[in-house]
Amino acid sequence: MDLIDRYIVAVGRHLPAPLQLDVVEELSDSFRSEVEDLTQKAGRPLTEGEQAELLKKHGHPWLMASRYLPQQHLIGPSLYPYYRRALVMVLFWVVLPITLIGGAVTAAYAPDTGYTWVRALGAAWNGTIYSVGIVTIVFAVLEHQRVRITALDNWQPSTLPEPQDGRPVPRGESLFALIANITFLFFWTGLIGLPAVAELGAMPVRFVPEPVWSVLYFPILVSVALTIALSLADLLRPWRTRVVSIARIVNALAFAGIVIALLRARHWIGVLAEPEFADRMARADYWINTSIGWTLIVVLGVTLFDLIYELRTLPARREVGA
User: Fold this and answer.
1) β-bridge mates for residue 167, sequence order
2) Are 28 and 7 in contact (CB under 8 A)?
3) What's the CA gap between 240 and 26, in Å, rounded?
4) What are phi and psi of 167, to 5 degrees?
5) Which pTM does this prediction carry?
6) Cα atoms in the Cβ-side hemisphere of radius 13 Å centred on 307
7) Contact 285, 270 (CB under 8 A)
């Protein structure tokens, strides 16, 4: 038995019994035709080394066999867009916030803060692995069971917008921004209250916002309201026109100024506790305000990135009569 025969037998061993006969016959015919062509070109039978080179081009028997299996992917193209969106939401809107907030709160009252953030990053890594694994398993099961997500099946082609001047904006992006900013607006205006924290690590405590929040209350309110209006405009008309882009640039500049003003305050939340907890109160105050400062820096970076992107993609002014 030459190498090619041994290769075909090895491929068959990696296949389920119902497929073995058909696949082996197909491969035998294919290789026989390929060997005949190479033999005619060489004018002699192929050597064992030449047979080996031919088989290497086709890949390992296990890989060759996998091409004949009914399912060639863990998550198919019909579910992959939902899978990718689910991963983004879980990682950036669940794992990351929990890591930052949990790490800050843990560091606030931990007796040994030297390795607090190392432990927090370790927990974030484990949380990421678990989250990605769970989401992947769920979608793999859906794929294996041939489940289809039909939420977008009822869309109407007649609702597609006419091509217009400007940059197309995904409606999903606009909808997410709209929901996020409306939620923040409810919180900022007091319609939704945060749960009161009366104890931190067995220490009776009270958190007091610094005056800078009162000073910037209305500027933040106006900026968030304008962001909601612009997100609604993008949702209704998913083409970023010059007017909307300029409004977003102005709002981004104003919001960047607000964030810079907040950063200059250097202290945003006061932590009040009994004098007997002075050391732990100081540690809690430091870590909580440090985490807020890091968060503001990230927000400023994202705002500046969005500002630069809007400037680079600003639609050109249309000529009169064009």
Assistant:
1) 240
2) no
3) 54
4) -95, 130
5) 0.52
6) 15
7) yes
Mean per-residue pLDDT for 92-99? 63
**Across residues 145-158, what is the average pLDDT?**
62
Antiparallel, parallel or unpaired: β 203-209 and 199-200: antiparallel
The stretch 48-59 carries a mean pLDDT of 84
State how far Cα 264 lies from the chain centre: 31
Give the 3-state secondary structure of the chain.
Answer: CCHHHHHHHHHHHCCCHHHHHHHHHHHHHHHHHHHHHHHHHHCCCCCHHHHHHHHHHHCCHHHHHHCCCCCCCCCCCCCHHHHHHHHHHHHHHHHHHHHHHHHHHHHHHCCCCCCHHHHHHHHHHHHHHHHHHHHHHHHHHHHHCCCCCCCCCCCCHHHCCCCCCCEECCHHHHHHHHHHHHHHHHHHCCCCCCCCCCEECCEEEEEEECHHHHHCHHHHHHHHHHHHHHHHHHHHCCEECHHHHHHHHHHHHHHHHHHHHHHHHCCCEEEEECHHHHHHHHHHHHHHHHHHHHHHHHHHHHHHHHHHHHHHCCCCCCCCCC
Mean pLDDT of the chain: 77
Domain boundaries, the chain: 3-66, 74-152, 162-322
Instruction: Report whether pLDDT(113) > 90.
Output: no
Q: What's the rounded Cα separation, in Å, for the pair 199 and 201?
A: 6
